[in-house]
Amino acid sequence: MDEKRDESSFDQRLNDARERQRLNDPAEVAAAAVPAGDQATQSAWGLGARIGVELASALVVGVVIGLALDRWLHTTPIFLVIFFLVGAAAGMLNVWRLTSPRKPPVEKKN
Amino acid sequence: MAEFDPMEQFKLVPVFGHFGQQFHFSQANLFMIVAGALILLLLRVGMSPKAVVPGRLQALAEISYQGVMSLAVGSIGPEGKRYFPLVFALFFFILFGNVLGLLPYSFTYTSHIAVTFALAMLVFILITVVAIVIHGRHFFSYFLPDGTPWILAPLIVLIEIVSYLSRPISLSIRLCANMLAGHVMVDVFAYFVILMGGAGAIGVFAALMPMGINVVMIGFELLVAFLQAYVFATLTCVYLHDAVHLH
Predict the structure, then answer these.
(1) CA B207 to chain centre
(2) Hey, is the C-beta of B166 within 8 angstroms of any chain A C-beta?
(3) Helix, strand, coil: what percent of chain B each, to 5?
């Protein structure tokens, strides 16, 4: 009898704790996940440096993939040219993602 | 005066004589171990009083714990607690590496791309595995945003993949380049001090200027050291958020 009461009170407390931590409702879990901190460190200089790094790194990845494909398939300039452009585009995309305000997480039905 | 090379400070040299040569144990390894030991010491010694009203060290340990926790939970969401140990370890490993590197006669292991790239790849592989484990095959829809015209799809997928792959590169280059640039700058200005100091009575006064700049630079470097560790941890959290929630 006493044991049973304890058990249910434990369940009750566990549930309360999960409620407090907002782990019960999956929609709320997702909604609470608005990325903070992204804006916190953003000075103009820092932003400029980050943009430069993002542009360059995407370009590096594109060029490396292009060179590797060319080497593998013996088609020397073709893939390099293609992936150079793709890398440049990806760099632009990175910068766009960085500078455009993050949209609040939309509930997707999946 | 010998040839001046500001990059010389980043050269890896075996330490502890014969032992170091045998195991290729360089200053980088040494300072990684020192950093790890200091972090553990801070937490262990700091938390040992278990006082309700914390002393200085305990307050430091608690603040570091809570700071990283709020960063993880704030940017990943409540599930962020699951990834807290990783974020905490990354943040403090990088922070201690950066700050220890500012001490005279020490070595900045975060200035080596090998180290930062390894850390970034760790994060990259982790976020990919987490996303695949949580979302299964749905993960691959990440590379095709909703509402893409089918005629553009091949191009968009290609661009998204390259953009995704560029994450570890940008993560590692940012940290490494910041540390490298800062240390080279301090070194160059220090060399100016010596050069001008050697140029007679006027030179000694002229040397005060690069000296002053260096004083400011060290303070600035301290800021950068903290900021870069924070940025690395923050971006890890942002990527983890993407992995957990997919867009």
Answers:
(1) 33
(2) yes
(3) 80, 0, 20
